[in-house]
Specification:
Layout (H helix, E strand, L loop, with lengths): L8 H16 L5 E5 L2 H13 L3 E10 L10 E2 L2 H15 L5 H14 L5 E8 L5 E10 L2 E9 L8 H16 L2 E7 L4 H8 L1 E12 L1
Parallel strand pairs: 6-7
Antiparallel strand pairs: 1-8, 2-7, 2-8, 3-4, 4-5, 5-6
Helix pairs in contact: 1-2, 3-4
Length: 208
């Protein structure tokens, strides 16, 4: 996405916003993704004035040695879906059952997101899924996504154990392993301690 005809970010914002509005139609929720860090920062004031919330993301690539740990448990959809239902119900307690079902079922479409897609998890001593994440591998590139630790099991090392297992699997299959983290939230520091380093930033502008 470049600047406008006169080279100004304002004109580029108006062009992007106009295209986004025409595609969104009457939908209430709109999101514009800017994958260029400089342009994202330049667009930010104009989007803010138009009522959009700015979300900044950090792209982080793994720079450490491959961990020598066993691979994590592979979770089937039959195992994962009840966990997703519970997570979404905790997140959206007022949502209807149909909404929760649709959100949980998005996992089915994620299976088409790369050449190889897998859901991984680690269990607590009691057998519950304590932490889970997605792994995508395609053409020598791997992405770790949607790392979640269940509320009752937080602070017990489950996320770290899962990440090390995912890294062992991902580094064996890909030359580049990356993830996306919220620039303003603490997990990015957790990922840095595991050996991830920032390689870029993207920007999302959301209006609901």
């Amino acid at each position: 996405m470049g600047n406008g005809a006169d080279g100004t970010p304002g004109n580029a914002y108006r062009a992007a916003s106009g295209r986004g509005s025409s595609c969104a139609g009457s939908r209430g929720h709109r999101m514009v993704c800017v994958h260029d860090d400089r342009l994202g920062r330049e667009f930010s004031p104009a989007f803010a004035a138009a009522g959009f919330r700015h979300e900044e993301n950090v792209l982080m690539a793994y720079r450490g040695d491959p961990p020598r740990v066993p691979h994590a448990e592979e979770l089937s959809l039959a195992v994962l879906l009840p966990v997703l239902h519970e997570t979404w119900r905790e997140t959206l307690p007022d949502a209807g059952d149909e909404v929760i079902e649709q959100l949980a079922r998005r996992a089915e479409t994620r299976l088409r997101g790369a050449g190889r897609v897998g859901f991984r998890g680690v269990r607590s001593s009691g057998g519950e899924i304590a932490a889970r994440a997605d792994l995508y591998v395609h053409d020598g590139v791997a992405q770790i996504e949607d790392l979640v630790t269940a509320v009752p099991h937080r602070g017990r090392g489950h996320a770290r154990a899962l990440m090390l297992s995912l890294l062992a699997e991902a580094t064996a299959a890909a030359g580049l392993v990356f993830l996306v983290a919220d620039a303003g939230d603490w997990p990015r520091e957790f990922y840095a301690r595991l050996g991830f380093a920032e390689i870029g930033r993207t920007h999302d502008f959301v209006r609901a």
